[in-house]
Write a structure and sequence with these properties.
Layout (H helix, E strand, L loop, with lengths): L2 H18 L1 H7 L4 E5 L3 E6 L2 H10 L1 H12 L4 E6 L34 H12 L8 E4 L6 H15 L5 E5 H13 L3 H9 L3 E5 L8 H16 L3 E6 L11 H7 L3 E4 L5 H14 L6 H10 L4 H18 L5 H18 L2 H12 L3 H5 L5 H17 L4 H7 L5 H17 L1 H16 L4
Helix pairs in contact: 1-2, 1-4, 5-6, 7-8, 11-12, 11-13, 12-14, 13-14, 15-17, 15-20, 17-19, 18-19, 19-20
This protein binds adenosine-5'-diphosphate and magnesium ion.
The site of adenosine-5'-diphosphate (ADP) has 18 residues, from α6, α11 and α13.
């Protein structure tokens, strides 16, 4: 492939990534260049290490998905510093320090009755680590601002003291780093990295459930940091006692400090959030429009932002002014388009790719476990995203009858209730499937 072709494919990838993620695009995508492009992987050169850390943590999944769509191959994407001559320098070898989302600051956080306590306690903690609420435990449903607040604390701590050492990790990163340390026989290194910090911030600790060995490690990490008078901040989707199979000794420690709940935002708060997000993107939003969006989307702030993105994407692609009618068309169109045009094959393709199985297997009669679950997920998604009957869905997926499809849908729906990972996976697959129909 010629250099020109590579450049042009890369330009497509960036353009699509930009459309899918306008917020991050504004700050991070301008200076990217392609530095390596072979059959299996794409290396993307970034101006500095901070960009690499941020992009690796926040944009890799999107870039990978888009690169795979555009190239038609299962390529991987790596962000590297500079020209790529020194390639191999990935996030692993960078100095520690969390990659913070630039927009997740206290200034950009709208305070209302639903999140006032959580916000105030985060501010207090960031002003004097270890001295007020320790640990600080935030909980609430997905999309209500937990991650935003955790990043805001880190921004503020950094602003006040550049030398403060903070570790901000998702629970999964904690577990993965722990496992890697065991594999590499470097538990001491792992301990010294985590136990000596001024603040340890762990997002989504509900993922510790059913991770016995990691819970044990987490317990000792917690004690070491706490006994040193350092700060611990945690988030989860439910209060400590309601996290399934979390050891009692962890539950009790998580309750030692302050446990702050975040509720879904009120109508007024939602309006203010829409205004804030619009402002951040340099968009003009009338009161009427903000009220309209706030009425349409109620439970999840991420979806409020999604609505805003959809409206402005439609305005840009149709070169139409942003009016209330356009907003209505955009949001209603989103639902109508999605239900009318998605086919079972669209679903099967995305699911097959995700599980790395063959299309023909999903559509065939094999019953092995590795195929059964993806197939059930296809059935569930087909049921929720298309108007096909149970018989039609069964017909596309191995000639199953309608009771099998019904059974699969109920099973997945039930498991989704108790399994946040499955819930997140279904949301991600749905996003991938519907994305092509939005713009
Ligand atoms: P969670 O971690 O609870 O699932 P996030 O922190 O990821 O939620 O928030 C989802 C999106 O909603 C983010 O873009 C975040 O900036 C935004 N958001 C949530 N709460 C607020 C708020 N009070 N003010 C402004 N933006 C918010
Ligand atoms: Mg979060």
């Amino acid at each position: 492939m010629s250099a020109r072709e590579v450049e042009s494919i890369f330009a497509d990838i960036v353009e699509r990534a930009r459309a899918a993620d306008p917020t991050n695009a504004r700050k991070w995508f301008d200076e990217l260049k392609v530095v390596r492009f072979d059959g299996g992987s794409i290396g993307i050169g970034c101006p500095d290490e901070a960009s690499v850390r941020f992009l690796e943590a926040n944009c890799k999944a999107n870039f990978t998905r888009i690169a795979q769509q555009i190239t038609g191959h299962l390529v991987s994407v790596d962000f590297l510093v500079g020209s790529g001559a020194e390639s191999g320098q990935t996030v692993e070898t960078l100095p520690p320090g969390p990659a913070l989302h630039p927009d997740y600051t206290f200034d950009n956080f709208v305070v209302g009755p639903s999140n006032r306590l959580a916000h105030a306690s985060c501010v207090a903690v960031s002003q004097s680590l270890g001295a007020t609420y320790n640990p600080l435990f935030l909980y609430g449903n997905a999309g209500l601002g937990k991650t935003h607040l955790l990043h805001a604390v880190c921004h503020e701590v950094r602003r006040r003291s550049a030398g403060a050492s903070i570790q901000l990790l998702s629970c999964e990163e904690f577990v993965n780093r722990f496992i890697r340390a065991i594999e590499q026989g470097n538990i001491t290194g792992f301990h010294s990295e985590l136990r000596t910090v001024d603040a340890l911030v762990i997002d989504d600790v509900q993922f510790l459930r059913e991770r016995e060995q990691s819970q044990e490690e987490f317990f000792h990490t917690f004690n070491a940091i706490y006994n040193n008078g350092r700060q611990i901040i945690l988030s989860a989707d439910s209060p400590p006692a309601e996290i399934p199979s979390l050891e009692d000794r962890l539950v009790s420690r998580f309750n030692w400090g302050l446990v702050a709940r975040i509720d879904p935002p009120s109508y007024e708060t939602r309006i203010a959030i829409v205004q804030k997000k619009a402002h951040l993107r340099g968009l003009q939003v009338s009161d009427e429009m903000a009220e309209y969006i706030a009425r349409q989307v109620q439970a999840n702030i991420r979806e409020l932002e999604g609505a805003l993105t959809t409206i402005y994407a439609l305005a840009t692609t149709t070169r139409a002014p942003v009016t209330l009618e356009l907003a209505q068309r955009a949001l209603e169109g989103q639902i109508r388009l999605a239900t009318r045009r998605i086919s079972i094959m669209d679903i099967v393709e995305v699911v097959a790719k995700h599980f790395d199985v063959r299309l023909t297997d999903l559509q065939g009669k094999r019953r092995s476990q590795s195929i059964t679950v993806p197939r059930q997920i296809c059935m569930y998604l087909a049921r929720s995203l298309t108007k096909h009957s149970l018989e039609e869905i069964g017909g596309h997926l191995g000639g199953r009858d309608h009771t099998t499809v019904m059974h699969a849908c109920t099973k997945i729906a039930e498991e989704k209730q108790s399994d946040p990972k499955l819930q997140a996976l279904l949301a991600e697959l749905t996003k991938q499937i519907t994305q092509a129909f939005l713009i």
